[in-house]
Fold this protein.
Amino acid sequence: MDFQSKGQAGFFGNLDMKAFKVLFVLLLTASAVDSQSFHTGKCPQPSVQEDFDVTKYMGTWYEIEKLPAMFERGKCNQATYTLLADGTVQVYNSELLSDGKINSIKGVASIKNSSQPAILDVSFFKGLPHSPYWVLSTDYQSFALVYSCIDYYGLFHVDFAWILARARALTEDVIGQLHNELTAAGVNTNRLTVSNQTGCDVMTKGPRSFEVNRFIVKDVARKC
């Protein structure tokens, strides 16, 4: 993409090799501190769910396993998706913190291209870049496999992955199947962590903490 190549040249052209090495080490250190999945090179392009039906995907999903994510600090992580009248999807993420409070945030997701409905962009804060949300596979009723990757000038990337379920537990057979799919996509499944979905009864009582207002992002698929 021309914008990316120009941005890369403009940014790194002003850095000498020593400065670039310092930047690289700092980014690597920050990634290691937060246990993020940091890799060299560009983001992979795994296959996504064919004929994805966003309507069937709506509802609540519970996190079973994930790659490390610095923005998740609690347990009982779950996400509820609601299809809105304008074609966007309201995203409501919540977790239970160690002090007993429910931490939650609302965002909005939109389909980038109507020909690939399993590839969405998610936004939680106005003015900040969207995050990719790729549904690699789902049966809509029991499991879903989601992947996200952020590319930094094609030189390195940080990725995220979530195994989700309609209940707070998932059979080992299905988890193994999803591990195989992640491996085929180039994801190191040894870095997956098991999410704690015990003692979550309070989550059914609704949020008690501050929520970020939902920012409506136009569904670009409507323009395609």
